[in-house]
Amino acid sequence: MPKFFIENKNITNNIITIQGKDVNHIKNVLRKKSGDQLEICNKTTQQDYICEIDKLEEEKITCKILKKTENNAESKIKVTIYQGLPKSDKMELVIQKSVELGVYEIAPVEMKRCVVKLNEKDKNKKLERWQKISEVASKQSGRSIIPKINPVIKISEICEKCSQYDKFIVAYENEEETTLKQELKDIKNEQDKEIKIGVLIGPEGGIDSTEIEYLQKNGAKIITLGKRILRTETVALNILSIIMYELDS
After folding, report:
1. How confident is the model at residue 249 (pLDDT cuts 50, 70, 90)?
2. Yes or no: is domain 3-69 CATH 2.40.240.20?
3. Which residue among 21, 58, 102, 103 has the highest number of C-beta atoms inside a 10 angstrom radius?
4. Rounded to an integer, what distance in angstroms lies between the CA atom of residue 102 and that of residue 75?
5. For 98, left (φ over 0), alpha (ψ -120 to 50), or beta?
């Protein structure tokens, strides 16, 4: 069933009003009619509803709430991906697939070996597009939240945040001993509470050794992902899959 997100202000008593671009999508792409059903999620409360379309107008669609539903798509494992800015449209792939796999938040990172350099105007345009990609992926995968794409951040700012996580992990190609599984072992038996995990991934050129030293001093755990060198756009998907397999059961 198609899923859409609305603001808290769009709910009055038992009625939900859909506005904006979703109106055209529902009317002209999905070709929905009065009496058809939609799944709608309140962004604020993360409450899902099964609704029936009542009226389709030029700029809005009015729906009646039939029932509240319980959504089990969200995990107590809150993973934030800090992705070193990659070239081309790789960031879009990272966002799309990470949202499908259950990421909580994503932040692009400016790092020493990033080829991509964004000015303020480009950052704002990119951020807007990236957030839209997150929203579309959330709808497709049945999420109850739209993971936030945070503004571009620097390594120094990340180091200030390391202590906010139960575990902050850095994937580094020159690490040979410590694995992701080892780092997750000591929190594996804490699934009954919310767990916050931060993950830093380098760009195509990898992570500079000075950045690794700085991160380690601030509590980050440096890990290997095995003997093969993965592309930067593959790493987030690899790590998220392992974390969710190990902890979200």
Report:
1. low
2. yes
3. 103
4. 7
5. alpha
* Domain boundaries along the sequence of the chain: 3-69, 77-247
CA atoms of 24 and 44, how far apart (whole Å): 23
Give the C-alpha distances (Å, rounded to integers) separating 41 from 102, 146, 153, 208. Answer: 17, 10, 30, 42
Distance, CA of 108 to CA of 238 (rounded, Å): 18
CA distance readout (Å), 51 to 15, 67, 68, 98, 107? 9, 7, 9, 28, 34
Report the distance separating Cα 216 and Cα 181, nearest Å: 18
pTM: 0.88
Question: Which structure tokens are listed for 246?
Answer: 């190990």
What DSSP character marks residue 114?
-
- What backbone torsions phi and psi does residue 103 show, to the nearest 5 degrees? -60, 150
Which CATH superfamily, name and number, covers 77-247?
SPOUT methyltransferase, trefoil knot domain (3.40.1280.10)
pLDDT in tens, 36-54: 999 999 988 889 999 999 9
> Residue 190: how many CB atoms within 10 A of its CB?
13
79-128 pLDDT, tens per residue? Answer: 999 999 999 899 999 999 999 999 999 999 999 999 888 888 888 999 99
**Contact between residue 55 and residue 21 where contact means Cβ atoms under 8 Å apart:** no
For residue 210, the cross-strand partners are none
